[in-house]
Amino acid sequence: MYRILSLTAFAGTALARDITFPPVSGLQHPLGSMDVSTSMDVSTALYSGLVTYANLPYVHCLAAENTAIEPYDIAIVGAPFDTGVTARPGARFGPNGIRQGSRRIASQFSWSVYTGRNYFQEWAKVVDCGDAPLTFLDNTVALKQLTKTHEVISARKANASEYTVPRIITLGGDHTTTLPALRSTFKHWGAVSVIHFDSHIDTWDPDVLGGGLSHYAGVNHGTFLHIAHEEGLILNSSFHAGIRAPVANRKYDLQHDKACGFHIVKARDLDRMGMQGVIDTLKKRVAGTKVYITVDIDVLDPAFAPATGTAEVGGWTTRELLTILDGLSGLEVVGADVVEVAPIYDNPGETTTLAAAEVVHSLIALMVDTPVKGKAT
After folding, report:
1. Does the pLDDT at position 121 exceed 90?
2. Which family does it belong to (predicted)?
3. 202 is in an annotated binding site
4. CA-CA 20 to 30 A from 125: which of 21, 109, 197, 213?
5. Residue 39 pLDDT exceeds 70
6. Residues 6 or more apart from 340 whose CB is under 8 A from it?
């Protein structure tokens, strides 16, 4: 009798575990659920497989010239480089960290509660091109490799018929990686106004922030804007935003910075001007020009972005930065980047990489909002 009861109980348990999956809602599927009774296709599941920014399709943008690839309008490309830093290394892992921080983002579920728009589903085709193949043993060679990467990706015909030049958003990498990007944008759009979100000015003379030791030592994440000015890549309508770090020379550094074409909105100016005041100042300064936006994640206070190479206290909040970025809508943004993300210094909540991923989202929105034609050749 005891044995019969046990078998009966076991049979009931077995039936209870034979779960019947309900039909999958079209709203659930993009989150990775599926009808496993009829399909084991996990190609659309999140948190699995290769990690791309915002679960976007991967395209081999660096394929051989005669290889047909999927066309695109906005390309995400990683720059795993951090040997131009003057403080903590680790940003070579930034591209992967930002992609990890973007895992919760998906094109099907990206309708903004602020604007009601989904920038992934408008006219522009956005893809992830993976990382540039960079050596970590020679800075000079690595920067040439990154320059070539930008040239190849931006030279492909865009998906949109009217706006034929793809635009690139770079995931850094230390801030030196902005220099190859500016060289690339110059070929398609000429000199640009740079809106530089950072806690440091990054226009230091290479003889100062390099010690005059060598040309090699003078090319780093604190001198790249000086070099860009020297090469004629940027306009005198450029702007720093969020500056708060000390300078090396009380008079010379700021005078030299102005000579490089920059004006400054300091971090604490936000308290006086408000976010709209900062937005209006930036937009008025760069009006009528093509714009490159570079975001050093250390523009944020370390409370919001601890995972960076040269953290400076007293910075902006993530919300403030995103509000200011979104307020720049209407500018002709021809290129952008998010740099200095060093995941090894992040906390278990991935505070920095989550913030960086959302900054990239805002940069995509700016590019989608205002298409830009390349200059006549």
Report:
1. yes
2. Belongs to the arginase family.
3. yes
4. 197
5. no
6. 91, 94, 172, 173, 174, 175, 221, 296, 297, 298, 308, 309, 310
- Strand stretches in 56-109, DSSP E: 74-79
Please check if 296 is assigned to a binding site: yes
Category of 76 on φ-ψ map: left (φ > 0), alpha (ψ -120 to 50) or beta = beta
| CA separation for the pair 55, 32 (Å, rounded) | 11
The pLDDT assigned to 66 comes to: 81
Beta carbons of 24 and 13 less than 8 angstroms apart: no
Q: Is 326 annotated as a binding residue?
A: no
Work out the average pLDDT over 292-321: 98
Tell me the pLDDT of the chain averaged across its residues. 89
What are the helix and strand counts (H, E) for the chain?
10, 8
Distance CA 262, CA 77 (A): 27
Question: What are the DSSP calls for 232-265, one per residue?
Answer: T-B-TTEEEEEE-S--SSTTHHHHHHHHTTEEEE
Its CATH class, for the domain covering 53-369, is alpha beta
Q: Is the pLDDT of residue 3 over 80?
A: no
The answer on whether 128 is annotated among ligand-binding residues is no
Mean pLDDT is lowest, of 40-54, 73-87, 224-238, for 40-54
Between CA 317 and CA 323, with CA 318 as vertex, the angle to 5 degrees is 100
The tokens describing 335, both together, are 């290129």
Residues 6+ apart with CB under 8 A from 362: 322, 325, 326
190: which DSSP letter?
A: -
Residue whose entry in the numeric block shows the structure tokens 């226009």: 203
pLDDT tens digits, one per residue of 247-270:
988 889 999 999 999 999 999 999
Q: Where are the domains of the chain?
A: 53-369
Residue pLDDT, tens place only, 10-36:
444 444 555 544 444 343 344 444 454
| Cα–Cα distance for residue pair 122/124, rounded to 1 Å | 6
Alpha carbon distance 154, 131 (integer Å):
15
